[in-house]
Amino acid sequence: MRHGKKVNHLGRTASHRKAMLANMASSLILHKRITTTLAKAKALRMYVEPIITKSKSDTTHSRRTVFAYLQDKEVVTILFREIAEKVANRPGGYTRIIKLNNRLGDNAEMALIELVDYNTVYGKDVEAKEEKKTTRRGRSKAAAAPKATEAKTETTEEAAPVEETPAVDKATEESKGE
């Protein structure tokens, strides 16, 4: 029975699990989002969030501690330079897990884990763009006004050549008839 045991062993030995989580954390820091199984994503969140918290204080000791977990100098540099700046005022919750469809091969639950401050889907800019005022007919006022002016100019331009064309045809018919 697993009373009070928080660590999901993921069916691996301790050394394999440690290496896998270190590699997944490095990939998450490099690429800002990765797709994996739901169980691994939840284990990775518990692994990487304390590391990101540690990166907020840029000291030699914290860099060495983070390097002991990640084992990659370039990833540690990116973590302390870029990511630590963005999460400096965030009190926690640096990652987001989004459930995806099940994997086709073995029907495993899949998930997307991403760093919250690096998303492009749920940003404030997207919400601002979606807020459009519409008329009662459902069109936006900005879109309705230019279309109306374009329609007026198109009808006047189209009407003039249509009237001239029959006049030219009448002149050619009269010259043929004579």
Automatic annotation (TrEMBL):
This is Large ribosomal subunit protein bL17. SUPFAM superfamilies: Prokaryotic ribosomal protein L17. NCBIfam families: L17 (TIGR00059). Residues 127-178 are annotated as: Disordered. It comes from Pedobacter jejuensis. GO terms for molecular function: structural constituent of ribosome. Keywords: Ribonucleoprotein, Ribosomal protein. Part of the 50S ribosomal subunit. Contacts protein L32. It comes from the Bacteria. InterPro entries: Ribosomal_bL17, Ribosomal_bL17_CS, Ribosomal_bL17_sf. GO terms for biological process: translation. Transmembrane segments: none annotated. Belongs to the bacterial ribosomal protein bL17 family.
